[in-house]
Fold this protein.
Amino acid sequence: MMHVKFTIGLSLCLALFIGALHFSASEAMGASKQELIAAKVKSEPAGLDDAAWETSKGIVVPFEGKEAFAGKHTSVTVKTVYTDDGIFFLYQWKDANQSVTKEAWQYEKGNWIHQKGNEDRISMLFEIDRINNFATKGCAVVCHVPDGATNAREGKFGTSTDAEKGDLWHWKAARSDPAGFADDGWLTIISEKKGGRKSDKGEGGDKKNITDDKSKPKYMIAQGKSLDKNGILLASHAVEITDYSVFKDGDTITYCMPKNFTDSFGDIKAKSRYANGEWTVMLSRKLDTANPDDTAFNIKRKYNFAMALFDNSGDEDSYDSEVITLKFK
Amino acid sequence: MEPVNDMRVETRSQKIIELLSLGESRDRLLAFEVPKDALTWTRFCGSLLLVLLILLFFSGIFMAFYYSPVPGTAYDSVDFALFKIPFGSVVKGIHHYSWNLLLMVMGIHLGRSLILGSYKAPRQMVWVTGVIILFFVPLFIITGDLLPWDQTGYWSTQVRLSIISSVPFIGKSAARFLLGGSLTGVVALTRFYIFHILLLPGFLVLFLAMHFHFIRHRGLSEPLGTDPVFRPRIPFYPNLVNRWLFLFIIVSVVLAIISRHWTPPLGDPADPTDSSYIPKPEWWVLFLNQLVSVFKGGLAVLGSTLIPAGLAGLLIGLPFMDRSPYRHPAGRWKILLSAAILSGFIIGLSIMGYLEHFVLVKH
């Protein structure tokens, strides 16, 4: 009888505790920060229209224009899911024009000129090692140095100390997406002469298609190869031009040729589509790449990140988001 | 062969006891008896509290191994212990959930003693020391909340310090003493840490010892309707001690499982320049918080000092105000009705606070 009473007592107390658990476990948060909840899926999304994306609630992230876009606003819908070893992000945003030119060469009346136009891009910054006040101020603490600083241009992006490190995911419509990747970089202290932005270990990025005298393109598509997505020439598909007389007015050639992505530089895989005035981009990576230049995601933890959107624009002209919290469900 | 081995073991343990001069203590322990009703489930809360306090001590020691009480590194050290150390989240979770459970069980323990009149003579000091121990828990929470140096802890501390500062005559000095200056920085963090791991545990152990001293000498209150003369007794060791050990294991396992599934919270790193952050009160402090927001201006002292101090005074002084010999609730309806009204008042304020901070909050 005594044992029964003891068991009843124990059960009552535990029931009371578990009932109150939710309330006591919830974090007393004050500031209204957006939260992106990563939903667990059994298998990785195969593409942009995979049913797995339905499991993610997603958020609409507001962006505020800076520099050339000052005073303008836009938004991006972001969803995220994860598997046992991978994390996947899906971004969708309206864009009236698909911009993938990135100063491509155009042959006109015997001359090679650069076409006007940049490219569309989206980037995310996570913390590898805590960046002071990034959780509350986001990219504002890493994106700007005082006006007039000697390293103002190179040093526009970086942290204040060696101990602070960021993980940069940078999708570029013309320079990384055709190769199926996003640039994987990292952020460290701004030095006296250079910014704090570094590329992860490995090969990637783009190769400039230009002759030594900078007057014309050096490479063209190799025989038997075809141009990649959006008519972009990949570096691996290029051969040196031996006869420039084959080109006629209006011909174009890629200026920034995406290279093969290898090692840690190629950790982030990309898929994309531009249709009906809207970009849909999917980025995926291992939760933990085991590379020191990447954020190792622990699903028990939450992460702060901020995003920037570039609409056919250079580094200074962007739409920036506030800092967002990523949590795993 | 078995008896021979047992004899050897016994002889060896006897030798150790003799070597340490513990023979007399052992004999006293073996001879010590407690009422059999000490094992009933209505006494369960007291045992559970003891188990939770032990768990809090052990998990706290583990966390202290990794903790760095400096604003620049405190957050990272907690983050490291929580997410990088194997089972770090389990240990931190046990600490986090234990104090939540401790507060709840203390409330039940207190309520039981109140309803059954256990505070009456000759056990007044058992009640008084118990209430003082209850008052220590918020002090532990207040000092512990700042230690991770996260937004929640930092800004909650600012709110609490402003409330402390509003206490007439001593408030500002008390806040300054806690901070070691005018700002919440490295000195404040060091002081809160010393309070949390050294001074408060020292005082708690002292009052626990006093609590047990009074229980030992004044005895456990008799169950209502029983004859105190014919109260069966059982050995303290092994009967009650084994029950405690069993409870310790059960509670540890349950809390470990809970912590494994619901990682204890760690907010964003503290940013003293982020004035947009508005902390939300934790469940146990909702009614106090609401008292402060109800009474404003010249009446603020009512909510921040007089009413809480009055409630605390009533609680401590209860055994000396209710001196009737009757313990049965039916004969003490005035006291119980008053307690129910006060409890309703506290619960009502808590609900108001919950609605204000968690339901009707404007984003």
Q: What stands out?
A: The interface with chain B takes residues 2, 5-6, 8-10, 12-14, 16-18, 20-21, 23-32, 130, 132-133, 135-137, 298, 300-301, 304, 325 of chain A (CB under 8 Å). The domain at 34-328 of chain A is CATH 2.60.40.1190 (Immunoglobulin-like). The helical segments of chain A are 2-25, 134-137.
